[in-house]
Every structure is written in structure tokens, then in C-alpha cells.
Design goal:
single chain, Rossmann fold, binds 6-O-phosphono-beta-D-fructofuranose, Phosphoglucose isomerase, C-terminal domain, alpha/beta
Length: 537
Amino acid sequence: MEQLWTALDGHRDRLEGTRILDLFANPERAVKFSTEVDGLLFDYSKTGIDAAAMDALLALADAAGVAQARDAMVSGVKINTTEDRAVLHTALRRRDGVVTVDGRDVMPGLRETYDRMSAFAEAVRDGRFRVPGGTVTDVVNIGIGGSDLGPAMAALALSPYADGPRVHFVSNVDGAQIAETLRGLDPATTLVIVASKTFTTIETMTNADTARRWMAAQVDDPAAQFVALSSAQERAAEFGIPAERVFGFEDWVGGRYSVWGPIGLALMLAIGPADFRAFLDGGAAMDRHFETAPFDRNLPVLLALVGIWHHQVCGHATRAVLPYDQRLARLPAYLQQLEMESNGKRVTRDGKALTRTAGPVVWGEPGTNGQHAFYQLIHQGRQIVPCEFLVAARGHEPDLDHQHVLLLSNCLAQAEALMRGRTLEEAKAKLAGTGLTGEALDAAAMHRVFPGNRPSTLLLYRELTPFVLGQIVALYEHRVFVEGVILGINSFDQWGVELGKELAKAMQPLIEGTTGTADKDGSTAALVARVRSLRGA
Ligand code: F6P
């Protein structure tokens, strides 16, 4: 592998001085450096990757054993070695087939849970599920991380399909969020979903207690309006939620990969089982493509290789996800967990120090809002931020198509501007007629120079349907997987979140003043004292 990395570094150095725009001297570049599957187009022609670089990246993927690792994952091998678990979110979106874990076919169990979810969702949506106030008008999903971001992101993305109860999401332990959410809701017509794989997460359990107290003040049997989504069915029972309203899943569904199963219940309640199934079908279609397409036309592999080129080879520290699709506003946050919790690692699968940084910082905002905020840095800052644009050819608002044309124009123009830039000569020409000359003209022009040659990719789709959203989410999941395999890391554990959790637990009695700060560093001890004094303790 090391030789292949070195070859890539060498090729990067040789490309120094070649501008992305020059690569379009090859008239076929736009076609050759883009791939389409089921109507989803991935265009990576506006990157500095040339044919030789792509060959070297593909060789890296082969040498890393991506195909073998992929086959191991989808067939139920325990590839999450630090937790001794299989990784089978792909099974959640399959309609049929056999998937075996520890010698047992898991598909019948998945189908049974899916059917129970659908039946429950139908009953809530058509009013057969009764609550004291009649039918359910509002659903509050209480969960955090993967038990929040997936359904929250998808419910917003698919809001044009929402014809069920209103869904709300509470994640933060900050009481402000649950207070704001419950204010204005009627406990007699609200259903609360407690979404937690482990059913121990402090934020979720605290918010669930708060919601139960809120409901108990108004209704006689609050437990009747609670649903649990969890792998820990006994803990859900201890909380008081009866088995018929517990939708379980197994430990081989990772939190950040769980929107496809019971954790997606809030989404299913909002859009209905048929559209939820279309979302799963989009994911399954991407799975089939990932499992069968040759790597040089395989979307997840190509997206991963573009990521590897930009971060591990070119050293760009971050990547921006820029959906020109307001309903994908939560996609960057969703991808932050998916990518950074999966690949933000410093050791290999067998615990050895990584030689290259894994996991770029992922961030972003919907366009065009970002243009009026941070695009200044993207265009003229010294650091290069590879940009991943997403846009639909059509919006869901036919009456507002003129606005969609503006949206599309902005998206394509930003990608063009990033690549093309503006030279000093062009900037000076722009200033013709201002009366500026000499040094003053040079200085003014310098501010108007755009270095250009900044890479971007585009995902283009006709319309953001449930199927397309499924394709996009599964695409990014597999991208993370391929990057992880190439880097030799376990993308499915998250030990890095544990230390903070432990220290927060120990901090609580310090803030309350029931224990002292003798074992704390000077800064922490001083801050605890200050917090206590500000709280009037
Ligand atoms: O703290 C990180 C994490 O474990 C995530 O991986 C997970 O998605 C989130 O917490 C919520 O966990 P749970 O669903 O068990 O409440």
C-alpha cells in the first residue's frame, strides 16, 4: 500500500501547475469523469484528478481489498471487530434474500419488525390508534446522534410527501429544546417516540422523563402514548413501554446507519409506509450498484476516491457539502456524524497509529445561503475547500419554477467560478473606466482576483423523491465505508465519544456542589467555582 500512496503523492506533484480547466482539453472529460446510476449523476470532472490519478486511486482501492471488505460486510461477517459485531444496515433495505449472522437468517425478523412498524404507522395515520384527544396530531421523536439526525434530516427532505401527523425532533439535553417543542403541543393528541439503541443515553432518557412528566400532568395513562425504538427491549419495558409498542433492532445496526429500520418510524409516520418503502428501495438500488458495478463506474467508490485524493493526497483539511436544495438543510449535520464519527480515527483496525490523517472535517449549509456567508473564503481564502454540490433539476413548487431556475443557475455558476477564477488581467479589465491607474489599479485589482482551480463535484438528480434520498444516503454510507477500508480503519465504532461522557457524569456532582474539585486541573476547578457562584450556589 505504501508504494501506491507514494505513487499518488508523486503524481500529485507532477500535476502541480496543471489547472483543472486545462484538463478539459480532452473533449470527453465531462463524460468520462462522471457516472450515472438510476438517474443520479455524479460529476467529478471539475477536480484535478486526471486519468492517471484515477488509475492510481483505483489501484489503491483494489490493493486495500475494498471488494472483499464490501462482500464481507453485506454477507454479515463481523467486520466491526472492536465491538465484535456484524454491520448490516444494508439488510434493512433489502426486500428479500438470505442474510446470515451467527448461522441465523436475519431477514424474517427484519420483515416482521417492518410489518409491525407499517401496521402501527397506518393505524396512527388513519386514526385507528386512539389517544385521549382522539387521533394523533403530533409526534415527538426523542433521540440523539443517529437516533435523531437520520429521521430529522429525512423528514425535512421529504416534507412534500408528508401527509401524516406533524413530527418534531428533540435531541439536546438543553431543556430549552424540549420546552420549546412541547409548548404549543397538546398532550392528549401527542405521541412520544423514545429512540435510543442503547436506551441509556443520558440526553434521551432525561428528555423522555421530562416528556412523560409533561404528559402525566394532563392524561391518565401517559405510557399508552409512548413508543420505544431500541435494541434494549428490557430497558424499554422498565421505562414502562409495553412490548407491542417497542420496535427492536439488533446490535449490527449502527446508530448512524439506523434510519432505515425502526429509528425511521417518525419518518414513516410522516410520509407513510409506501413512501418510506420507496426510500428503502433507493438505498437498496445503490447497494446493488455498489456490489456489482466495476469500480471505475461505481458511484460510492468514485466518491470515496475523490475524497481520498482531496484529503489524504492533496492535504485539504475540510470538505464542504453544499446542497442547493433547502430541504437537504440537515444533510451536512447528518453527514458530519456519518463521516466524522465513522472515520475520525487515529489508529488502524489492529490498533496501530495511522500514517495519514483520516476523516476530513465535513461542514456545509444549503445554497444560496452559504454564498452570502462563507463562500468568500472558499473563493479567495488561502486554504482549498473541495466542495460537494447537490441539486435537483426540478423543485416541488411548480408555481415557483422561476426561483428554481435561479437556484440551479447559482449552483452551476459557483462550481464554474471556483474552477475558472479570475486573473489579474481580467480583474484590471473589470476596473476599466474607474479612473484607477498604476499602483492603485494593481491594488484594487488584486482584491478582485480569484485564484480559481478549486475542485468541486456535483450530484444531480431530477427531483428529491424518497427513492432519490435513499440513493443519496446509501451513496454516502458506502463512500465512508470505502474510505475507511482504504485507510485500514474500523468505520463502525466510536470510542472517541466515551471520555467526554464519563467526565460529564463525574462533573455533575461538582456543579451541584456535592463533591469538591480537588482532583481537577486549575482551569476546570476555577470554572466550576465560577459557574457555582453565577448560579448563586
Ligand atoms: O455518543 C455517540 C452515540 O453512541 C452515537 O453513535 C449514537 O448514534 C448516539 O450516541 C445515540 O445513541 P443511542 O441510540 O444508543 O441513544
